[in-house]
Write a structure and sequence with these properties.
Layout (H helix, E strand, L loop, with lengths): L3 E6 L3 H12 L5 E6 L2 H8 L8 E4 L8 H10 L1 H4 L3 E5 L4 H9 L4 E4 L4 H18 L9
Parallel strand pairs: 1-2, 1-3, 3-4, 4-5
Length: about 140
């Protein structure tokens, strides 16, 4: 199986490191790219040579938060087909509902321990890359 591309939109450098290690331990060959905020993510996604298979998105970020990113994705035909997994610190129902209303594919509260994060990374990669069939639509 070819390497799957995952764009992680996360402003916290410690969380970036933990997420990277967790996905490395997932058992699925993944190529991770990181953006520190939504605006940086949109710049990365503007490249005609880069299309991630999955996006992992934090909600609480400076410059452009996760809700703004989801709104942009929902309005952009070329981005709407990419699954977006919200991985954030709060599980408040307003945040969950708004995320799904804006097109999130899944909503996960960040776990408290690294083994729990590893399990989430394993479950996500197994589900999105081994179980379901992803859209092959490219950028137009």
């Amino acid at each position: 199986m070819p390497s799957q591309k995952i764009l992680v939109i996360e402003d916290d450098l410690d969380d970036q490191l933990l997420i990277s290690e967790a996905f490395q331990n997932s058992g699925v060959c993944c190529e991770l790219s990181f953006a520190g905020n939504g605006r940086q993510a949109l710049q990365i996604l503007d490249s005609p040579d880069y299309r991630p298979d999955l996006i992992v998105l934090d909600l609480n970020m400076p410059v452009m938060n996760g809700f703004e990113v989801l709104s942009h994705f929902q309005a952009a035909d070329t981005l709407a087909s990419i699954p977006v997994i919200v991985l954030t610190t709060t599980g408040e129902s307003d945040f969950v509902n708004k995320s799904y209303d804006l097109g999130a594919s899944s909503f996960i509260v960040k776990p408290r321990t690294f083994p729990q994060l590893e399990k989430i990374a394993r479950d996500l990669t197994n589900y999105w890359f081994r179980t379901v069939r992803l859209s092959s639509r490219g950028f137009s």
